[in-house]
Structures are given as C-alpha cells and as structure tokens.
Design a protein that fits this description.
10 helices; 7-stranded mixed beta sheet; 229 residues; globular
Length: 229
C-alpha cells in the first residue's frame, strides 16, 4: 500500500472509530464471535512473543496477557483513535509493562523498527482482514514476521451459508456501515500465501453455522525444515 493510500485508510479508520471506540467493546461482543476461542488456541511458550495485527481497543491483548502471564505481547493498529483507547485500557489493567503498542499499517510491518524484536512466536488477526483493503499483503506480512515453529491465527467473518439469508443480508448491510467486508475468498488468499512458502501448513474450521471462519497457519521449526531437504 502506498503512503498516500495508507494515510487515507488511517484517516478513514480514525473517522469511523473516533466515537465508536468508546462503545466498541460493549457492542462488538454480540457479533465478533470466536475471539476468545482464538485467544485460548494461542498457547504461547513461556517467555514467548505474541503480536496482534489490528489490535483496536486492546481488548484481546488484555485478555491474552492475563491468560498467559509469562508471555510478552505486542499490538499494532493504523488508527490513532483506537490506540488511545487501547493504551488506557492496558494501563488500567496494569499491563503496560507486558504489552507494547505501535501505530502501523498491517501491510508494512517492521518488527525491529516498531518493537525492537526480529519476529513473533504467535501472530493473530481478529476480525481485521475484513477491514484491510489490501488484506492479502497483510497476510504475507504476518507470515514474514512469524518465527520458525510459530503459528498464525485468524478469525473473521464467514459467508453464513448455513444461516437464513435474511440474517446474512442484515449483517452485510451493518458491516458496510463500518467499511467491513466479509472476504468470500479469504480461504483462497490464505492458501495462496501459504503456497508461496515451503514450511507452512494450514488448518481451517467453519464455526457457528458458517458465521465465522478460523484458520491456524503453522510454520515448521528450523530443524524440521532442514531435515526435510
């Protein structure tokens, strides 16, 4: 994404969430399903590093940091407005020493510049890719910063094929108000990104009558890759 496009998207997100951020967590819990299950699946090793791309209000990072007290957490978001709320939430939870935030575009992630680390043992997207215009690039970036032996976790809107059409239509209109688009080709995009690498495998699950899709992308440890050659 060019700097101009990135700036434009940042301004759009700030406009959408300037006021929404104050009620975001209270309202999204009713339809951002599967987030807590994703957090439960992370299972980082002690002293592991975990990155959330598109951390929003910091809700997921706070829950994950409490669940895994020996891990170190990082979050980035393109919206300065959302990061204001995230920093307040994290400070209130007493987790500022274990959670580091940065303003950044999901399509241009530089771990060393942003956080002073080389990569992450766990990376996750929670209802983020449906908001990123160049989401395929964001996926590639996530895989690039994933350490050997690490896992990338994704949960996002499915296509609701097993639900009544009326529900799907209402949800689609509601999401459009916030510039959110359920990616019908999300699975294909993840498979394509994984296919460009020789050391990753993908697991997929459709949940809640196809309401949401969950992916787990695992990168092989360095010794496993060298042994396979």
């Amino acid at each position: 994404m060019s700097p101009t496009a990135s700036d434009s998207h940042a301004a759009l997100m700030d406009g959408v969430y300037r006021w929404q951020r104050h009620i975001y967590d209270a309202t999204r819990k009713f339809y951002l399903l599967g987030r807590d299950r994703l957090i439960g699946d992370l299972q980082p090793d002690p002293h592991g590093t975990v990155l959330e791309i598109g951390c929003g209000t910091g809700r997921n990072l706070v829950l994950a940091a409490r669940r895994y007290p020996d891990a170190r957490f990082y979050g980035l978001d393109i919206s300065t407005e959302m990061l204001v709320t995230a920093r307040r939430k994290i400070a209130k939870a007493g987790l500022a020493e274990r959670i580091t935030l940065a303003e950044a575009d999901a399509t241009a992630v530089d771990p060393r510049t942003l956080f002073g680390v080389d990569g992450f043992d766990r990376v996750f997207f929670s209802y983020t890719l449906s908001m990123v215009p160049q989401w395929e690039t964001a996926l590639d970036q996530a895989m690039e910063v994933l350490s050997r032996g690490g896992t990338l976790h994704v949960v996002d809107f499915g296509q609701q094929r097993e639900m009544p059409r009326a529900i799907h239509a209402v949800l689609k209109k509601w999401l459009a108000l916030f510039h959110v688009e359920a990616r019908a080709n999300l699975g294909d995009g993840i498979a394509a990104a994984a296919g460009r690498r020789s050391d990753v495998t993908v697991e997929f699950t459709s949940r809640y009558y196809d309401y949401c899709w969950a992916f787990r992308i695992a990168r092989a440890p360095a010794h496993a890759q060298s042994h396979s050659r």
